[in-house]
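Researcher: Let's try something more involved. This one mixes different molecule types, so please make sure each is placed in the same coordinate frame as the others.
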Amino acid sequence: MILHFLGCDTAELSQSWQIDRLRVLAVATEPAEPRPGELVTFSALIVSPVHPLAGSAWFVCDGGASDDFGCSADPALFEGGSLEEADPEDLAAAGFIGFLPALPPAWLVPTDYLDSLEESARLEGSFAMTYLAAIPEVPEGQTVDEDEVELAYKRVPVSLAATPNHNPVVLTWRVDGFAIDPGAEVLLDPGQAYDLRAELTPESFESYTFVTSLGVAEVRSEQPYLSWYLKDGSFSQSNSIFPLDSTVYFSPDDPADETASLWVVVRDRRGGMGWSELRVRFIAPD
Amino acid sequence: MIPALLSALLVAIGPAHAEDPPPPPPAELPPLTKDPALLEFVQAPYPPEAAAQKLEGTVNLLIEIDAAGAVTLVEVLIPAGNGFDEAALDAARQFRFSPAEDATGPVPVAIEFAYGFVLDAAAKDGAHQQVLPSADPADLPVNLQGTVVEMGTRRPLHDFLVRIDALDLETQTDAQGQWQFRGLPPGNHTVRALHPGYDTLQKPVDVAAGEVTTARLWVRNQSYADPGIIGTYRRETADVTRRTISMDEIRRIPGTFGDPIRVVQNLPGAARAPLGTGVLIIRGANPEDSRVYIDGMYIPYIYHLGGFESIINPDLVKSVDYLPGGYGPQYGRSTGGSVDATTRTQFPERHELRWSTDALDSGGVWLGSFGKDHEHGIGVAARASYIDLILPAFLADDGFTVSPQWWDFQAKYQYQGQNPDKFSLLAFGFRDTLFIRTPDGYAQGTDPDTQGDIGTQYSTYRLGGTWDRAWGNHWSARIAPSFGMDEAALDVGDSFHLIQTRYTAELRAEAAYEHDDHLAVTAGLDVIAGWADFIIELPFNPASFAEIDPLADREPYQLEGTATGYGPDPWVNVRWKPLKDPDKLTLNGGARLMYVIIPDENEVLAVDPRFSFRWALGKTSVVKGSTGLYHQPPQPFQQYRPDDKPALVGAEEAWASSLGFEQSIGPAIKLEIEGFYKDLNDLIVSNRTFGSLDDSYFVNTGDGRAYGVEVIARHEPIGNLFGWVSYTLSRSERQDYPDEDWYLFDFDQTHILTAVAGYRLPYDLSLGAKVQYTTGNPTTPYALGVYDVDQDFYVAFPSGDTNSERLPAYWAVSARIDKLFTFQSWQLLVYLDLINALHGENPEFEQYNYDYTEKTYFKGLPIIPSPGFELKVQL
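Model: All components are placed in one shared frame. Result:
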C-alpha cells in the first residue's frame, strides 16, 4: 500500500478486464443449487480472440477430491491423444461429464451426495467441484501449447435448502442511461467516455433463508456484483458492486476493428451466475 | 612571542583509538554520566624552529585518563611536525583532569585532544613591542574585563588568548572564560581573541579614565562537532569491545533522517529492510525474533509509519547498543538480535532549545538543568508529522485520500549530582495513524466485506525509572521498573474491526559483585507481566478456516476477552580473567532461565547457558568468540486457541556461535571480522493439517540455519573524515517440516555491502555519502494461474521451489550536504539529503498480473531531494 502511494504502480501489467487471449469468463449451472438426484447442466462464457475455440473438456469431483487441477484421473486415460479413443467407463470414473460443443456437459447428482452430513447441515449442504479446460484450435499437425489452454474451476452447491439459489439474469445494458435492446449493436464514438450499466431482473436479487451455526434461521438478501470485460478500450474499474452497478467505458482512440464486444458477468455470491454481451460499432471519423 | 595555546575538543571517548590499544574495557560499559574536564593545563614552549619559520600548527592527541583523572598515556594521532608534536606530548603528559564517571563512579577513558600553536601578531608581522607603563601591572586597577563566549552555544571558553597588540599585552581566559587587563591607558583599544579551531576575533573597545569597561567577546568555532557519544556497535557480550558512532556522524549519514536507530541497519549483520517496513532483520532472523528496548524497556514498535524514523527524538538519545547475536544472559526472550537505545544522561547547565524540521516531521527539544549544582537534568521533546499535508501533491488525483500521521513525546529527568544514589525517570509515547479513504462507488475487489475505508492506529506509552548505586569498590546494583500501555486498532470497511489494549509492567534488577580485577559476578532478574483487552470483529468465523467454502454464507464473528501472562527470568553471569594480566584473557559464563506463564493456556520453560571469551593477542589484535542457547516464547497470536483451550506450541530455540578477530591499523582504522552460525530448532509454522478447532493453528515443526561472515573497516571520526565499509556474506535457510526441502529465508541477502563516509569542509560545510548494495530477496516464481470462476480471480501455482529465485540486486547511492550558520546565541543547520541520488530502479517486491502470466516489480524510492533544518538556541 505504501509503495503504491509512493508512486510504485502496476499500470504496465495487463488488466483482468482486457480480453487478449483465450479466457473463461463465467460458468453457470442449471439448476444453480441442485438437490441430490437432480441432473445438472452447464453453460460457459468462453472468449477466444486470437484462435477459434476448439472446445472445452469438463470434469466433476467431490469437493477436495484432488490436490491438483482436475479430478484424480489416471493420465493414461488420455494417452491416446483423443477423448474419443478413451473408454467411456474410464472417463466416467475420472469424473468426465462432457466436451463442448460436441458433448454438452451434464452431471447427475448422486442421491446419497449429502448422506455424510448431519441432518441440519444438509440445509446448507456441500459442493462439488467442476473443472474445465478450454482449448484453442490449432492448425492440423500442431499440438496445443499448454500456456494457451485456460484452466478454470467452479463449485456446484448441492443442498436441501428451502430457498435454493437461482442464476441472476442481466436484463439489459444501459449506455449513458439509454437502454439497449438485446442483440442490438451500439454506435459509439472513438476516444469517448461512456457510462455503462447492467440492469438485472428483479428476481436476480433473491432473498433466502440461512441457518446459522447456532441453528437460527435468518432471511438474507443477495449482494450481486458485476465484472466487466472488453477487447478494445478500457474501464474505470473492472468490478461494480450493487447498488452501484456502473463503470465508465473509455472507447479506444484508434479502434483495432470496426466492431468490438463488451461483456458483463453477474455473480450472486452463492454460485449463481449470468452474463450478457454488448456489440459495439465505432463511428468512423468524417 | 606567544607560547602555545590549546584547545580541548572532546570528540570521541573510547579506549580504541590508539595504535597500541589499551586493554579491553571492564565487563559492562554503561554510558558515561560525566565527561572528564581539564583541570590543569600545561603550556608547551613554542618550538624554536617553528617560531623561526613563523609556522603554526595543531597536534591531535589521544590522551588516556585513569579513574583518578591522571594522564596515563599520550599519543599523537595527527602530527603537525616542526617540533610541535614533541612539545605537545611533553605538555599533555602533565595535564590533570577530573575523572569521567558512569553509573558506577569514576572510570578510565580516552579522549581526543587538539593542541594548537599560534604565533602572536608581533611574531608574525614583526611589529615593534610597545613599552608598558613603568608601574608594576599587578598593582594597577582592572579597567578592562570580559568573557570569551562561543557563538551559537554561549559556552564560556577557557584558555583563550586575549591580546591588545598595540600595547603588546596579553592574557588568558580562566575556567569561566573570563579575562581582564589592568592599568590600560584611556582611549580606544582593539582586543583580539585567538584560539586554534576558532576564528580570530577583533573588537574595538573604549576605555574611559577611572572606569571599568566590560566587553564580551563572541568567537566562532570553525567546527561545531557534537561531542555526544551516541551509537554503540556490537557490544555482543559483556566483554566485546564497544564501538561508538557519534551523533555528529549519524546526522551526516544520508538517508537516515539523523535517526540513531536506523543507523544500525548500516552495520554488519543487518539486512536491508524492504522499503516502507523498517523491520530489523539481523543475522538471518525473522523480524519478530529481534527485540528493541529503550532504557531497557521492551517496546513492540520502534519506527513510525513507513520505517523512516524511530519513535524517539535523536536529541534525547545517548547511545544505541546493537547486539546482532552472541549476547549475554542479561538479554532474553529472543533468538535474533537486540537493539537497546539509552537516553541522554547528561543535561547542559545552560538551557537549550532545539528545533528540527525535515521532509517528514517537525519537533522541538528543550534541555536544561536545575539546582544549586545543576544536579537535576531535564529534557522534554515532542514531534509531529505533516507528511499527510504534503502527500497529496505527489499522488494521482484518483479520489483516494491517504492520510498518515504521527506524533511522539519524551520527557526525561536525570539526577546528575554527587549523591551516590543515581535516579532517572523517563516517560515517552507516540501515536501513528493511517487512514485511506476510498472514493464513493469504487469497488475494492469483489468482496462486500472489504469495501469502504481503511484505518489503522497504534500507540505506545511508557513510564520507567532507574536507580543505580555502588557500595565501595565491590558492590553495585541497579533497579529499573517500568509500566506502559500499547494500543492497536484496525478497521477495514464496516465488517473488520480489531481493538487491542495491552498493559505491560517490567522490572529489571541486577546486582554485581566485583571481587577483584579477575572475578566478577552479576545476577539479575528480568520480569515482564502483561494483560490485554481485545475485541475482534470479523465478517466470518475463524472456524470456517477448517473447510473453506467461498459460496457459503458468512456468520459475523466477535471475540472479546482478556489475556494475561508473565515471565520472571532470573539470570547470572560470571566474568573470570584467569591470567596474571587480567586484560589478556576474559571468560564469561552465565545462564538465563526463561519462564513464560499464560494462566490456563501455556507455560514455556527453558534454560539458556551462554559462554564467551575475549583474548588479546599482542597489543593490536583480539580474538573473541561466543556460544549459547537462546529461547523465544511464541507470539501471542500463535498461542491463541478458541474456547480457552491450552496452547499447543512451545518456545523456538537457537543455538548461536561466533568467532571473531579484531585488528587495529594505526590510530584511526579498525578492522573486525566475525563468523557466525545459528542452528534454529522448533520454529513455529502454520499447521498444514489443521482440520478442526481441536487442532492448533501453529506447530513447532520448523528448523532453520543461518551462517555467515561479517567484516567492518572503520575510520574513526578523527580529523575531518569518518566512515566505514561494512560487508556481510551470509545465508539463512528454513525447513518447515522434517524431511521437506530446505528453502531460503524470505529476507536472505547473500551480499550486504554498505559504505558510509562524511567529510567536514571549511566554512562549516559538510559532505556525506552512502553506497549500499545488497542481493535481492528470494522469491517464489509463479507461472500458471487457474481461474476460480466463483470468486473471479486466478489461483496461483508455483512454477518453481519456494524462494528459488531472487529479486534483482539493490543498489543505491545517497548524498548529503549541510551548512552550519552560527550567530551569537543560536545556530542554524540547513541540509539537503539526496536519497537514491543515482536513481537506481530498485525492485522491492514482485507483482504479477491478474493471471500470473506477467510479472513486474514494485520499485523503490525514486531520486528524492529531502531538505531540512535544525535550529539550536542557547537560552
